Amino acid sequence: MRLRAALISHIYQKGLRLSCSARQKHTSGEIINYMSVDIQRITDVIWYTNYIWMLPIQLSLAVYVLYLNLGAGAWAGLAATLVIMACNIPLTRLQKRLQSEIMAAKDNRMKATTEVLRSMKILKLQAWDTEYLQKLEALRREEHNWLWKSVRLTAFTTFIFWGSPAFISSITFGTCILMGIPLTAGTVLSALATFRMLQDPIFTLPDLLSVFAQGKVSADRVAQYLQEEELKDDAITEVPRRDTDYDVEIDHGAFSWELETTSPTITDVNLKVKRGMKVAICGMVGSGKSSLLSCILGEMPKLAGAVRVSGSRAYVPQTAWILSGNIRDNILFGNPYDKEKYQKIIQACALTKDLELFANGDLTEIGERGINMSGGQKQRIQIARSVYEDADIYLFDDPFSAVDAHTGAQLFKDCLMGMLKDKTILYVTHQVEFLPAADLILVMQDGKIVQKGRFDDLLKQNIGFETIVGAHSQAIDSVINAESSSRILSTESQKLADSDDEFERENDTDDQVQGIIKQESEHDVSQGLNEKGRLTQEEEREKGGIGKTVYWAYLTAIHGGALAPVIVAAQSFFQIFQVASNYWMAWACPPTSATTPRVGLGLLLSVYLVLSIGSALCVFGRSMLVSLVGLLTAEKFFKNMLHCILRAPMSFFDSTPTGRILNRVSSDQSVLDLEIASKLGWCAFSVIQILGTIGVMSQVAWPVFAIFIPVTAICYVFQRYYIPTARELARLSQIQRAPILHHFAESLTGAASIRAYGQKDRFRKANISLVNNHSRPWFHNISAIEWLCFRLNMLSNFVFAFSLTLLVSLPEGFINPSIAGLAVTYALNLNGQLSSITWNICNTENKMISVERIMQYSRIPSEAPLIVDDHRPPNSWPKDGTINIRNLEVRYAEHLPSVLRNISCTIPGRKKVGIVGRTGSGKSTLIQALFRIVEPRVGTIEIDDVDLSKIGLHDLRGRLSIIPQDPTMFEGTVRGNLDPLNEYSDQHIWETLDKCQLGDIVRQSPKKLDSTDFYCSCRKWGKLECRTEAVVLPGKDSTEAKQCPCPR
Q1: Among residues 644, 656, 652, 547, which one has the least CA distance to residue 854?
Q2: Closest C-alpha to 449, from 697, 317, 266, 240
Q3: What is the pLDDT of residue 483?
Q4: Is 869 buried (19+), middle (13-18) or exposed (0-12) by CB count in 10 A?
Q5: pLDDT tens digits, one per residue of 654-665
Q6: Which residues form the ABC transmembrane type-1 domain (predicted)?
Q7: 387 — pLDDT class (breaks 50, 70, 90)
Q8: Confidence band (pLDDT; 50, 70, 90) for 1004?
Q9: DSSP letter string over 583-603?
Q10: Closest by Cα among 398, 411, 379 to 444
Q11: Is the pLDDT of residue 489 over 50?
Q12: What is the pTM of this model?
């Protein structure tokens, strides 16, 4: 338990220290595999460490007993045992290689699954969900192929285990016959009991080797991850504030995301920022503005020069990073609550009105990644977080890009120039209006500072800065001119009311705009949240016993369960053959060496060999069938779950943390792949085994039944007492694992912010707390197992003692001594069998919780059909793009209030239409309603007289294109991001990149379209890629969810 906790904690802490290049090697899905699968396999090794010294002792004792009974024939038994053990060595090596391939395939699947879940909205918007479903299925097929090879090898190993007693005994008895060593009933029965003793080390050895092989593979993977490159501590030098007047100094700095490169990302930087200065950083997209901030934070590896920083830092990244929880916790970020200071910051960050609209104010829950907040709200929350930090140095990466002009101006005035007036601030911006207030302006181009100075001085220099200012003005003028020249709508503006916000005006339009927009509720999903209307619901947890439907669904998943009776029959015949072979040897061998044998030695050995071979074939067939059926069943459950997840409505992903889903597709699916079938098989086999033992013992003395009836009742009582506790503990343990994965995924996303704020220690403690929450039910579950095993062992010992006493107290001649000896031989195993049957039933029920959890996600309500055959739109649709909205009312979930109400309007086709409003007013929600990401509660939306609610989702989304508010980049190549379906030529992609001003940047990379070097270099790549995707896909109506400073 402590090893597990320590490893998870180390993996988590390593994730917060990984360099960007190392971060690209290990995706979130891979690291989650380290936490959930690899750590489990490493800790499994601990359970087997005692066998390292137990196996030699068991083997030595067994050989010694054989030597006492059979003399030199014992060495044949030892040789046969060593041969079987030697066979396990190549099998173990092969299993180790297969485990490496399985884990690699699982990593690829988890990597892709994590990316799909993270990008689910864009996949649905672009109608790519089916294609990515096929990609995930292809990755699963690759994993399935390796799993099939592994389970076949496991089945063969099982065959060796069950067949080993027959093989060893045949070799031993055959050698004794050849050497003329007499075989009496006593020596045979003693030898058979010893062979059963040898079965344990033979059985344990492959398990031991397999566990150690799996543990070695997992340990190597975790070790490789823990040895990955970290951010260098000497990237920046901390200078005490009393020793310098400069808060930031960079001398001849050169930086690059890749250490081994000939072209640094940032080069020849010389910068000195005095205490209290306001420094603006501007430049074209991709010029290195965000990278310069990363250099100051120590995020980008330093190639040359020196970076000195004096004071604490606060960082506002370009993409808002929001933690699950309430708004107040996101703003406080671990700092103590100061009401007066807090209220001032809320007002300065323009959050007062937003909090008034929330039912619970600043205690309103924020969903995962802030999904129930608008982009502007998320940005203002993280700005408020930075202000509350009261740091010495503030780094803002384009903080005003997600808010409207009025709110941006207020933030700049009240925050940067108000509450932070005495602080040192470096801010990246594209808004020219914020440049004159800066004490120093840095103009970036191609990773260099090409100009610096004050606003007026830079304009007078006339060497490039005016190009940026002019481009901004020209862009605004071109929009105004284009609007006035192509305007077909005669508008007549009338000021209805003056308010505190100058931008809140309404315009009356003429007949071209047929209708008016009436929005009674201008807020997003956050409005009206209360304790009964939480967006993120608690994880569903079944109560009581595992339902019969769960078992039935699993057993009948393949061929309606027709193979289950075949498996039971194979095991039953194995038991019959095994009992018959032992019975034959006990009956046929003479009681003493002076007694005449009942059959000849040749016949004795031949019959025994036939029965042994029959039992071995039965167990081989049973093992193969269990492996085959188990893997096919796991595959079917996985496909059902995967289809349901990817066809789930967006509301499911909004209300379900990614960690919960990943927990099911990783840990729970791994249990189905490798454990459930064998556990259920062992339950059946344990029952059959103990029935065989009881049958043999009852043939000797029927009074044995008298003790078995109360013993069975006692076992049943123990089982009924143990199972409810163990089951709920197992459920709690499973549920408590998801928050660990979720917290890790969140922390990994915001690692730069956590480091900048100096919060690594607090997040480490939070991780440890979550690990402890998971460890508590896990530890008590193990304790409950030990409680059960102790009582079962005591009970088994009592039964054996009673049976043995009964047999020796019977009068002479009452029973055949040979058969009595056989009964004692079987009674020796009664202890383990009785414990095994109860333990297997209880353990299986615990493992079936994974089946139960996967079935929960196989019943997720689906979105509307992708294709509706009776309502297929024409191929030319949409032709004009006229949008009619009538009485539209939208809400994100049944238990949440409506976020759009009574919207009615007509938008003419082939026109450029802008949707404006304050952040959080519902602009993005209206766009989502067009794509049916959220379904209308009331009202209709028509495009060219086609009711969107009646056509299939792919017919709708496949004809529209969108540039989403939140940029998305898939890990992989530039080509894969722009054309994931491989539908367009390289020429078309290059033309599109040139239109979006990305062509020259991509051509600089040696791999061109196959380059993967842009993940760390520029966050704006995501938005530009999304714009390029919209241009790549011809024949689609385009929708943009947020205005952006980049040209189309």
Answers
A1: 644
A2: 266
A3: 42
A4: exposed
A5: 778 787 888 888
A6: 1-214, 566-846
A7: very high
A8: confident
A9: HHHHHHS-SSTTSPPSS-HHH
A10: 398
A11: no
A12: 0.69
Residue 594 has what pLDDT? 65
Tell me what pLDDT residue 343 has: 92
The pLDDT mean for the chain works out to 79
Q: 3-class DSSP state for residue 492? A: strand
Q: Which of 730, 738, 740 is nearest to 679 (CA)?
A: 730
Pairing of strands 313-316, 393-397: parallel
Pick the closest to residue 621 from 202, 198, 163 (CA basis).
163
Give the span between the Cα atoms of 132 and 115, in whole angstroms: 10
Q: Is the Cβ–Cβ distance between 561 and 629 less than 8 Å?
A: no
Identify which has the larger pLDDT, 769 or 715: 769
- Neighbouring-strand partners of residue 281: 428, 442
How is 894-953 classified by DSSP, letter by letter?
A: TTS-EEEEEEEEEE-TT-------STTSSHHHHHHHHTTSS-EEEEEEEETTEEGGGS-H
Under 8 Å between Cβ of 515 and 906: yes
Q: CB-based contacts of 776: which residues, under 8 Å, 6+ apart?
A: none
Closest by CA to 372, choosing from 536, 517, 229, 129, is 536
Beta strands 302-309 and 237-238, pairing class: parallel
Note whether 947 and 936 are within 8 A (CB). no
Half-sphere exposure of 916 (CA within 13 A, CB side): 12
Q: Are 163 and 199 in contact (CB under 8 A)?
A: no
C-alpha separations of 394 from 298, 382, 441 in Å: 14, 12, 16
Q: Does residue 213 or residue 489 have the better pLDDT?
A: 213
Q: Give the rounded distance of the alpha carbon of 53 from its chain centre.
A: 38
Dist. CA 856–CA 852, nearest whole Å: 6
The mean-pLDDT minimum among 99-108, 209-218, 560-569, 630-639 falls in 209-218
Over 90: is that where the pLDDT of 811 sits?
no
pLDDT digits (tens, 9 = 90+) for 388-402: 999 999 999 988 877
How many Å apart are CA 605 and CA 494, to the nearest integer? 109
Per residue, what are the HEC states of 166-221?
Answer: HHHHHHHHHHHHHHCCCCCHHHHHHHHHHHHHHHHHHHHHHHHHHHHHHHHHHHHH
Task: Compare 113 and 473 and report the one with higher pLDDT.
Answer: 113
pLDDT at 1018: 45
946-947/936-943 β-pairing: antiparallel
Both tokens of 93, joined, read 């090596």
Residue 432 and residue 265 in contact, taking contact as beta carbons nearer than 8 Å: no
Q: Is 826 helix (H, G, I), strand (E, B) or coil?
A: helix
Higher pLDDT, 969 or 99: 99
pLDDT of residue 143: 92
Tokens of 743: 């917290």
